[in-house]
Design goal:
This is Membrane protein. This protein is mainly alpha-helical. The protein is 81% helix and 0% strand.
């Protein structure tokens, strides 16, 4: 069971965290280009927001499967602090994604009119007053998100 869970943990990390990290790093660039009138960038920004939202939620499988791995071989994992640090850092990264990155992306996508009717509440209004500031903030949060996953990956292999 340990080997299966470990394999699923690694596969979930590669399949979900890689695409969401790329989407988080690229969305704001495409959104600003779309704001300046680039139609191709508008389609790309919409796709990147969908990837961030969908894969972001699915990326929770990686730390959950990691915790399951800990329960299958408690002698090794429960006494090694790097695994506890990894869990803590993944919670921070996931919270950053859910509470800061996705809402800001949604605001930018909504201001561009890229959201479908199922993605918007009837009374929800989207407005971005400073596109450069919004881009900078998303770039910063996306960089922190990516850096956290790099640190977690290093902790997993040392």
């Amino acid at each position: 069971m340990y080997t299966i869970l470990l394999a699923l943990h690694v596969i979930a990390a590669v399949l979900f965290l890689g695409p969401v990290t790329y989407a988080v790093s690229r969305f704001q660039v495409e959104a600003v280009a779309a704001h300046k009138g680039d139609e191709r960038a508008a389609g790309t920004a919409r796709t990147l927001h969908k990837v961030t939202s969908t894969y972001g939620v699915l990326s929770l499988l990686a730390p959950l499967l990691g915790i399951a791995v800990m329960f299958t071989d408690p002698g090794t994992y429960w006494t090694d602090g790097r695994f506890h640090a990894s869990i803590g850092l993944s919670v921070v990264a996931w919270a950053l994604l859910i509470f800061l990155i996705i809402p800001r992306q949604k605001k930018m996508a909504g201001a561009l009119g890229l959201l479908g009717p199922d993605e918007v509440d009837a009374d929800e209004k989207f407005r971005v007053s400073n596109w450069d500031k919004a881009k900078g903030q998303l770039s910063m949060f996306g960089g922190i998100f990516a850096l956290l996953w790099v640190v977690i990956a290093v902790l997993m292999v040392i």
